[in-house]
């Protein structure tokens, strides 16, 4: 099984962004840890990042993966374009947010991707990515 771990807007700034919300890992460190966790379970994770909404759509539409773990960053709160894309995909998408979006600013409480994703893991830091791997591989 191959999973795409796709990171959206500003997630390339992990390690520099507010560690109280996002922890200290850089995006590369986070990706390495998720790849290692998945590899130990016989699953390959390929990683991609874009700050651009259209590019995230292109990556998802052209991915040759069996499932997607998506943290779209702030696009999650208003991108109907990403929502429509996910709705059309034939592979399951698990959404992850490192921080607890529901206990932060009100604009973060609205997640327009949540109900077209198969599962959402919120506010658990990297554990949310591990849980998404387990969910997508049926090892919950
Ligand atoms: C985030 C939460 C979003 O509200 C924010 O815009 C991000 C990161 C998270 O992982 O907690 O960029 O998706």
Characterization of the model:
This protein has 140 residues and is of the alpha/beta class. It has a 5-stranded parallel beta sheet, with helices on both faces. Strand 3, helix 4 and strand 4 form a beta-alpha-beta unit. It is 34% helix and 19% strand. It has helices at 19-22, 27-39, 53-62, 80-88, 126-136, and strands at 2-7, 44-49, 67-71, 93-97, 119-122. It starts with a strand and ends with a helix. It has a single domain, classed as 3-Layer(aba) Sandwich (Rossmann fold). It binds 1,3,4-trihydroxy-5-OXO-cyclohexanecarboxylic acid (DQA). The site of 1,3,4-trihydroxy-5-OXO-cyclohexanecarboxylic acid has 11 residues, from loops.
SSE blueprint and pairings:
Layout: E1 2-7, H1 19-22, H2 27-39, E2 44-49, H3 53-62, E3 67-71, H4 80-88, E4 93-97, E5 119-122, H5 126-136
Parallel strand pairs: 1-2, 1-3, 3-4, 4-5
Helix pairs in contact: 2-5, 3-4
Bound molecules: 1,3,4-trihydroxy-5-OXO-cyclohexanecarboxylic acid (DQA).
